[in-house]
Protein 1
Amino acid sequence: MSDTVRENGVIVAIDGPSGAGKSSLTKLLARRLGYIHIDTGAMFRAVALMAKRAGIAADDDAGLAGLCRTLEISFVRDGEACRVLANGEDVSREIRTEEIGLLTSAVSARKPVRAALLTMQRAMGAKGGVILEGRDIGTVVFPDAEVKFFLSASAEERGRRRYLELAARGDSATLEETIAKVIQRDRQDEGREHAPLKQAADALPIDSTSLSIDEVLAVMESAVRERIAKGEKG
Ligand code: DC
């Protein structure tokens, strides 16, 4: 990890499988630090949604490359929430379905999609003062990030959390189905050729299976503040 602090602060990378609590924790940590939150999963989800609408298959690399060349993805703050725009259209809700989640896992394994989003993500984060959450932030996007976390939890616990979220939205999925989907997604994300889900050697691993959000947040916040203080002294 680098010893300098960038123009707007450090870069914090949070990687881990789906359902480990990355989104909630990134949001809370960004608020505490006054940092920008970049949800890279939402960017891949936007690509998957737009590919589906355009009738581009998940393994059509030429079609996906063409789509990414003209696709503009941005984030806008809306009070406490953060909205995802694809070519100016608010797709925040539409990208959160289970169907788009599974399609995203397939589309995000394709090389042209990863290459296009890598460029966008590096441009968004280069000045620091950002927290990026995803699967390959500490390994591929910003291997020189000043602080890296790898957040995990058991598949059963992640499935249970996802099931509760879905039930609150009125979705009728069962707990068993939800856990099975979590395991399927892990396999796709870990087994792919390009930028697979993997813990960076210098990441701080946190297993949130039996920890509260506040407990995990406290560990993360103190690690980041320690690194910022070290950077300011040096
Ligand atoms: O974090 P999420 O569930 O919104 O991510 C959706 C999918 O996108 C997930 O299956 C893995 C993929 N993804 C990725 O490949 N690389 C990232 N940096 C973020 C997400």
Protein 2
Amino acid sequence: MSQMQPFSTGTDAGAPPAGPCVLVIFGATGDLTKRKLIPALYNLLKGGLLPKEFAVVGLGATEIDTPHFRDRIAAEMQKFATVPVEPAEWDWLAQRIYYLAGDFDSPPLYDRLRELLPKVDSECGTQGNYLFYLATNPSLFCAVVQRLGAAGLVDQNNGQWRRVIIEKPFGHDLESARKLNLDIRKVLEEKQIYRIDHYLGKETVQNLMVFRFGNGIFEPIWNRRYIDHIQITVSEVVGVEQRGRYYEEAGALRDMVANHIFQLLALATMEPPISFDADAVRDEKAKVLRAIQPMSSEEVLAKAVRGQYGPGVLDGQTLPGYRSEFQVSPNSPVETFVALKLSIDNWRWAEVPFYIRAGKRMPKHSTEIAVQFKRAPFQLFRGTHVGRLGSNRLIIRIQPDEGISLQFGAKIPGSSVRIGPVAMDFDYAEYFGNKPNTGYETMLYDSMQGDLTLFNRFDGVEISWSVLTPILDVWSVLPARNFPNYAAGSWGPREAEELMARDGRKWREQE
Ligand code: BG6
């Protein structure tokens, strides 16, 4: 496709720096902080989006002091920064980083935090605005919020704001998510709660809304009259790595579907919101998620497939099975792959199936939404090769190789009518240039700015769990007997292919 002159957006051209604040990280010695949060803050600084009046207070169980903590994260930045680290900029940020060691579930830490924060305010000009980031074990979310409340740290007075970012997983089923919502909403107002899903920080995910609602040509065909079905694939090459303990409690359905995939599904299928105001967008997302038909027990058996990887070979490398991974039970019943057929019960999507799959240890790292359109009537081309032509497809590549491609048929030059599949391709990096980021920049910036649009509201979380809980219930009473049922490095169990084949369809082959 011929493209307009590529242009660079620069670094968030036009966006102002966030307002003064302190980011208080619970879990500051953990993985998320070193891999994502600190590199993301550095990227915000480089992009001119971090306020001058800014500070970080890290909280962790490890008994170290602030200078040691600064040294430690400086060393980690060498490994995890997504752009070269410039000493002057890094020093500026490092000088604004503080550390407190203590137990997240006992009052003394909160007393010390309450003493430290005003000092930070006066040293860094942060004006009493605090953003608490709960990057802890999920079992502590509720306790931390309650203790923050008891210490008076989330009271918003004199124009000072207090917000809390809560990492995933938010609950492990409908009941626990409801309880967590109920408990934290006794302490916080809904607009102080930022339930994060880092998929919504990905440019291509945000672009879904622009693609659908900022262009006039797609919306008229975005419905059951033109779309045959939609597939969402999130395939990862990695296994569970060092996260066996967490994953044994979670499994693929909770880890990927309850949040990331449902967010993709909601953005791909929701009605146009009346504005880009946070609640207008979240209303529409909740509405469409509510229209997903929960499965009966019989339907779970027919429409939900689970898999677990066994040993296998990928790129010549022999890989262990899930049951031999670190901190995983040798007869674990936990799924590392899931495929579902879902229906959305509303006017726009009646009769359109949605096939979603997510798995670890697959042959390719790829997240994409594939929209398959209905075939054209082909009487016109009878007697030619056109009958064999595939349907038109729109592929939205979320990662890697972010972009969008539209596949259609074109006449192969020559005297007979032969049609070949071609694609119009938009490649993010080619068009806008590469902008290395961690995926957390937007989420951090938006929360500092008080923009809740990309964060989950309590009802969205509960609706997702109410769709998935019937599946979890059936799976827990009927543990899979055939695990492991796919080899590491393959596209998942045979049953996932059969799920599609029964409907005369196939998963899109990934090139
Ligand atoms: C996390 C899951 O939320 O998302 C991980 O817990 C998964 O299991 C990860 O690997 C995938 O995120 P990304 O951004 O690498 O696609």
